[in-house]
Amino acid sequence: MKTRITSVKARQVWDSRGHPTVEAQIGLEGGAVGRAIAPAGASRGHFEAVDLRDGGSRFGGLGVDKAVANVNGAIAKALVGRDGTDQAGVDACLAEMDGTAQLERLGGNACVAVSLAVLHAAANAAGLPLWRYLAGDTAPRLPLPEIQIFGGGAHAGRRIDIQDLMIMVPGAQSVRQVLEVTGDVYRAAGKLMRDAGKLAGTADEGGWWPNFDSNEEALETLTRAIEAGGHRPGEDVFISLDIAASEFYRDGRYRLALDSTELDSQSMTDLIETWARRFPILSIEDPVAQDDTKSMARVTAALAPLAQIIGDDFLVTDGARVHAAAKAGACNAALIKVNQAGTVSKAHAALKAAKEEGWATIVSARSGETEDLSIVHLAIGWDAGQFKVGSFARSERMAKWNELLRIEEEMGNDAHFAGWGAFPPALKRGKRGTP
Ligand code: PGA
Ligand code: ZN
């Protein structure tokens, strides 16, 4: 199969928030085509790749004409003629051409769409599903999902401070079973909100809009929803939180608007520890701010037996930051977002760095998503062990869960669900107390 890149093209398409984004399409000499769309975050880390937006008044400044032009112009010129199966070479070329650490010139959105589209084209040229192309001869696991039930933070008008309240079902036997349990809990949570006169629609990632009077009421309601859905909180269904604490950290203080409190680092970590002991919590992402390494190390040391501690904004899918955090004892799991890194190769390097440190890894979507299914295949093909896509509603989310189901079916008897094995070794499996 001839795999030389013959065409590189981009177009403006639209994401799940109705914002413009970049779709790239790559053609190879033998006729294989690959296509991918850049997602977009709303609570972004300081150090992640930045999207190139046009500014001005058109589309609220969010236009991507410049990013699209970069793909059709400079990037196409540099990539046509290269081998489409040389992902590392393509990604190095993008990074070199851009020349900035955060891909500000070409745009993280332009680069990630092109990088993923090249990967798809190469897999198509090999005649393989992307996950299989990435896995080679290995037998990768189906990842353990974490699925949002309530939105919050930047995804729900800052209605509550916690950004994501999710569930995990590590004792399930399959992805199919996890999704069935999630359907029960999602419906039960909606009914609890409706009965309390608090149903107010859904947030950016499809979770219920969090009409709560305190952050703890959100945790209590989620625990009750697990029960009301017919499952046992702390035994078969657990809570996973993304605190996204950088969003409410300023000048050394954590400002929890809903609880009308302002906490210093010590009090913030005390609060996280209290929640982790009171509620059946198995995973906590960004419990403290992206530059509060000491506090991150304190939470990790205190909670490692109870809950995995994930760095998202804290690590921004960067291998060097993963190693530095590990050295400081901060985090024991890394969230992997390809568009934070800007290229497939850099994201994969961060995932490998986390595995070298003995950490867990979670491939993740962004709050602004599309029908693009690339991350489902990366989560499996890279054997990430865990997968985070948002909630259990809205088709830009459901498309990912449904693709996971198709692949599980296709694997047949070879399907191996990661379950409890997806967590860092320090985590003690089994029961958690409930309030
Ligand atoms: P974002 O949030 O995509 O809006 O940055 C998702 C997350 O924090 O995990
Ligand atoms: Zn996050």
General description of the model:
- With 435 residues, the chain is α/β, with parallel strands linked by helices.
- It is 38% helix and 17% strand.
- The strands form three sheets. The chain has an eight-stranded mixed beta barrel, surrounded by seven helices. The protein has a three-stranded antiparallel β-sheet with strand order 1-2-3.
- A hairpin with a 5-residue loop joins β1 (5-14) and β2 (20-28).
- α7 (265-278) packs parallel to α8 (293-303) and α9 runs parallel beside α11.
- It is globular.
- The N and C termini lie far apart (60 Å).
- The model has no long low-confidence stretch (mean pLDDT 97).
- The structure holds 2-phosphoglycolic acid and zinc ion.
- 2-phosphoglycolic acid (PGA) binds next to loops.
Describe this protein with a few key phrases.
globular; 3-stranded antiparallel β-sheet; 435 residues; 8-stranded mixed β-barrel
